[in-house]
Amino acid sequence: ASAVRFAVLAALCLWAELPHGLLQLGSLSRPMGQPVLHSAFVDPLLALVQDGRACWDEAAACSAELSLGSMLFNAATFAMASILMPLHQVVTLVVLLANPHYRNGTHDEELRRQVYAKHDEILAWAEARETFVSEELDRQKGGHFAEPELTLLNADNYQDGQLQLLPLA
Fold it and tell me: How distant, in Å, are the alpha carbons of 137, 146, 157, 162, 166 from that of 150?
């Protein structure tokens, strides 16, 4: 699905010409398509690659409509998208072909068991921590539960193994 989406977007950028946008509604009315791709992304990248030093010294020598910062940003964005989108597709395809669980549509039962065991361990730890903090607050307040707005509980409240209650102010 993502390969089709990338192919459709690339096709729209390379061949569509929408000088007045899609609709006369908000940002949809801005120019889109191949002329915008070239003027905003491809041309700055080519200018920086071909005459990088001249662009660095004087941005107007490379582009009359873009500042040097805009040219660098657009060129880097286009270069990264041109490299990373196909790389993403190749890596996804390799994972799909190499991992038998993805390829066959089965579950990795060992991983599933480990995830559920870790989940249970975290819940048990949270419950034990809640019980400990509640008992410690009761003990330090003389049997009365401390009001949550009067205390701040975090790692800094423990000194020499004792829970210290700090006012929020």
Answer: 12, 7, 13, 18, 8
Write out the two tokens for 156. 């800094």
Q: Using an 8 Å Cβ cutoff, are 54 and 62 in contact?
A: yes
Query: Could you tell me if residue 165 is left (phi over 0), alpha (psi between -120 and 50 degrees) or otherwise beta?
Result: beta
Each residue's pLDDT tens digit, 6-18: 788 778 777 777 7
What three-state secondary structure class fits 63? coil
Q: Which residues pair with 162 in a beta bridge?
A: 159
Element (H, E) at 86: helix 68-98
Q: Rounded distance, CA 127 to CA 3, Å?
A: 45
Entry pTM: 0.51
